[in-house]
């Protein structure tokens, strides 16, 4: 099977996650996180009242633009107040008094460096539920909950704002993304080959093809038998981050009905852009027992919240990577 038939298009991404909360004493009432290609680049919360840069190359960016952090901090502090006001509005719309409530925004853009195509997204949510989002294909707002229907209608009538959102997500955001890729090239555009192991918890357990230490995270791992890719007997896993900024993934192969003398017909294939395929034949004598994987780390909590605020009034301001 050819490489291109498996590996998805490599997209670069710039994402922002804003989270406002009410009723939580152990969590900041406002948090903002910026990420390029899944790597956190900056952080702000209402407790520290300042921007924390998370990558060395962002320090170089601030040296080239000395006023950057001051401008960005002012913008984040303004957004903090904006979120606080809107949580109060949301409570009224949803007929709520007191309690714990979470108000979120996710927006960003993607760029395919092979065909130069772009895409963007803008999503809002409240208490873990999608509230309203922008459909860029139709350039209309979509509201999955009845409380947001009237807002959707009003926003869809604002054609100028819709055009601005389209420009912001498909042009301005993409320009910031490309700039981030230039500054962070040595980190974001590096390639690290995976280490591949075949593991098994017990003789009756599935055989696990475990690839770890690779970067970027856009990897494809699959099993083949006699040179043909397997779709049955296979349980693909999720790509997870390691503590050192690389990634790992495991793909299980169920061999309960396969005699051990036939195991040699199987192989695990790992594909990562920029490297040759790694093929590991299934040799019973080379399987590690037991499997112990103790270095999994959770995804960034702020980035796992994928839907955002209810009231959107994007201003001509700056985000964590605006020039």
TrEMBL record:
Give an example GO biological process. Answer: immune response
Signal sequence annotation:
1-22
Q: Where are the transmembrane segments?
A: 287-312
Keywords linked to the UniProt accession = Glycoprotein, Membrane, Signal, Transmembrane, Transmembrane helix
Q: Which residues form the Ig-like domain?
A: 194-279
**Superkingdom of this protein's organism:** Eukaryota
Q: Which InterPro entries match?
A: Ig-like_dom, Ig-like_dom_sf, Ig-like_fold, Ig_C1-set, MHC_class-I_related, MHC_I-like_Ag-recog, MHC_I-like_Ag-recog_sf, MHC_I/II-like_Ag-recog
Q: Which GO terms describe its cellular component?
A: external side of plasma membrane; extracellular space
UniProt xrefs under Pfam families = C1-set, MHC_I
Q: So what family is this one in?
A: Belongs to the MHC class I family.
**Which protein is depicted?**
Ig-like domain-containing protein
Q: Which organism is it from?
A: Gadus morhua
């Amino acid at each position: 099977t050819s490489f291109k038939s498996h590996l998805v298009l490599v997209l670069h991404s710039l994402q922002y996650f804003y989270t406002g909360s009410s009723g939580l004493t152990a969590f900041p009432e406002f948090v903002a996180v910026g990420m390029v290609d899944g790597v956190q680049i900056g952080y702000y919360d209402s407790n520290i009242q300042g921007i924390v840069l998370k990558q060395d190359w962002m320090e170089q960016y601030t040296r080239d633009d000395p006023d950057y952090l001051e401008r960005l901090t002012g913008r984040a502090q303004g957004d903090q107040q904006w979120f606080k006001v809107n949580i109060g509005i949301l409570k009224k719309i949803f007929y709520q008094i007191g309690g714990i409530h979470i108000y979120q925004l996710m927006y960003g853009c993607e760029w395919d460096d092979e065909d130069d195509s772009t895409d963007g997204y803008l999503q809002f949510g409240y208490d873990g539920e999608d509230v309203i989002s922008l459909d860029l294909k139709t350039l209309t707002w979509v509201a999955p909950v009845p409380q947001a229907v009237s807002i959707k209608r009003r926003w869809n009538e604002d054609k100028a704002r819709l055009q601005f959102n389209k420009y912001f997500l498909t042009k301005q955001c993409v320009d910031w993304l490309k700039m981030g890729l230039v500054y962070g090239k040595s980190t974001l555009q590096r390639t690290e080959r995976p280490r591949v192991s075949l593991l098994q918890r017990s003789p009756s357990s599935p055989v696990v093809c475990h690839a770890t230490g690779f970067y970027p995270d856009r990897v494809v791992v699959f099993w083949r038998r006699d040179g043909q890719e397997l779709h049955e007997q296979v349980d693909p896993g999720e790509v997870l981050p390691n503590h050192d900024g690389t990634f790992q993934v495991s793909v299980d192969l169920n061999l309960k009905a396969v005699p051990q003398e036939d195991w040699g017909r199987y192989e695990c294939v790992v594909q990562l852009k920029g490297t040759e395929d790694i093929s590991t034949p299934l040799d019973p004598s080379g399987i590690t027992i037991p499997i112990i994987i103790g270095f999994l780390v959770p995804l960034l909590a702020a980035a796992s919240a994928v839907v955002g605020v209810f009231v959107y009034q994007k201003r001509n301001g700056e985000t964590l990577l605006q020039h």
